[in-house]
Amino acid sequence: MATLILVRHGRSTANTSGLLAGRTPGVALDERGAAQAAALPARLAGIPLAAAVSSPLQRCRETLRPLLDARPDLPLHIEERVNECDYGDWSGRKLGELNDEPLMEVVQQHASAAAFPGGESMRAMQVRAVDAVRDWNARIDAEHGEDAVYALCSHGDIIKSLVADALGLHLDLFQRIHVDPCSLTVIRYTRLRPFLVRLGDTGDLAALAPRETPDTSGTAEVGGGAGAP
After folding, report:
1. Which of 23, 28, 37, 30 is nearest to 65 (CA)?
2. CA distance from start to end of the chain
């Protein structure tokens, strides 16, 4: 079956502002995020991609734009089911404020029971994302063969939930997974089981160095980043 390259969008203005962007319109890549996106074609050079699939949100489409410019024949498909989690009333709020909400502890420790006020549950988020990938795997296999590779650009919590599914990991444990902005996560699907080939690969180990102050550059999603509980 197909091999899936999951691309988390590049660093966004919400990431640097410490906001939970959710589906708030107008959230774009910041300067660093644009540079990360510009490096994507070189990182994927030599890999024949059958298709590119994207969340409908601006920051994902901006992340894929340099890749699509470099490969004008690569088709882009917008997939609503890999949209960001609908955080409902939490969307656009500061993460620092949300940490005091009782629901945040549930999100972090018992995600399968978490549902956002005015939004969706984390369980529903995972189900729709997994269904989307299953459907795209079948489509790519049928159109391009079982050795085909395709890229899908989405969001941190979506990607983490897909990794948890691939590993047979309960959603309650998915907060143990971390993916940086513009990182690449690769899952190879087979008839009997998926294989996690890469996780959160940026080619940059600088994030492992000790910091004098907490880094919030990748925390603008409920599920994580270095500063998330």
Report:
1. 37
2. 36
Token pair listed for 141: 């296999």
- For residue 135, what are the β-bridge partners? none
Q: What is the pLDDT of residue 153?
A: 98
Please check whether residue 205 is in contact with residue 183, taking contact to mean a CB–CB distance below 8 angstroms.
no
Contact 220, 15 (CB under 8 A): yes
Beta carbons of 137 and 189 less than 8 angstroms apart: yes
Q: Which of 137, 201, 126, 128 is nearest to 165 (CA)?
A: 126
Q: Are 12 and 21 in contact (CB under 8 A)?
A: yes
* Rounded CA Rg of the chain: 17
* 180: its two tokens: 């940086």
Angle between helices 31-43 and 58-70 (to 10 degrees): 40
Residue 179 is predicted with a pLDDT of: 97
**pLDDT per 10-residue tile (average), the chain, 229 residues:** 96 94 96 98 95 98 98 97 98 94 97 98 98 98 95 98 98 97 97 96 80 54 44
